[in-house]
Amino acid sequence: MVVGVILGLAWIFQRHFALVVVVGSSMQPTFDGGDILIVDKQAYQQFTPQRGEIVIARKDADTVVKRVVGLPGEKIEIWAGALIVDGKNVAEAYSVRNGSLTIKEGRLGRNRFGLVGDNRGTAGSTTAVIAGTHEFVGRVLGCVPLTPKPNQQ
Fold first, then answer.
1. How many Å from the N-terminal Cα to the C-terminal Cα in the chain?
2. Rounded distance between C-alpha atoms, residue 110 and residue 25, angstroms
3. What's the pLDDT tens digit per position in 55-100?
4. Are 145 and 113 in contact (CB under 8 A)?
5. pLDDT at 50
């Protein structure tokens, strides 16, 4: 009976959630390479992604961890790491590493979202992605860091 309950819970977890390992530094300082993310795979079956949410998306052959910065129909750009939406600077309520990353202004199409990493220190440290909800794996709910952050030591 106990084994049946455990297998049932594992089946439910596997259908609704995923574990994803962070690779690279594009989401620093929020996540580091090696951190394990808990992802809600069904989050966007009923809800639309919102600015500031962290998502997992499939783009070409890659799976990426990025933050939603632009919503359908918006004109977005990044200037020296700072987010500008429809010509206005956006105060982001999360930690980012601003720097030299600059992305020219462009308007997002219908059902297209602008995604970018939190590490905007250099153009090589992050990749901007334009993705539709059909490319989203899910929304990041939490993180299990494998190494303690400086403020956790």
1. 42
2. 30
3. 999 988 889 999 999 999 999 999 988 999 999 999 999 999 888 8
4. no
5. 97
> How far does CA 9 lie from the centroid of its chain?
27
Q: How many Å apart are CA 61 and CA 77, to the nearest integer? A: 25
Q: Which of 151, 114, 139 is nearest to 54 (CA)?
A: 139
In eight-state DSSP terms, residue 23 is -
Distance CA 104, CA 84 (A): 10
The pLDDT tens digits for 12-38 are 767 789 999 999 889 999 999 999 999
CA 153 – CA 79 distance, rounded (Å): 34
Tell me, what's the pLDDT at 19? 92
Q: Which of 31, 42, 38 is nearest to 141 (CA)?
A: 38
Q: Say if CB 77 and CB 114 are below 8 A apart.
A: no
3-state secondary structure of 46: helix
Catalytic residues: 26, 66
Amino acid at the residue 49:
P
CA atoms of 45 and 138, how far apart (whole Å): 9
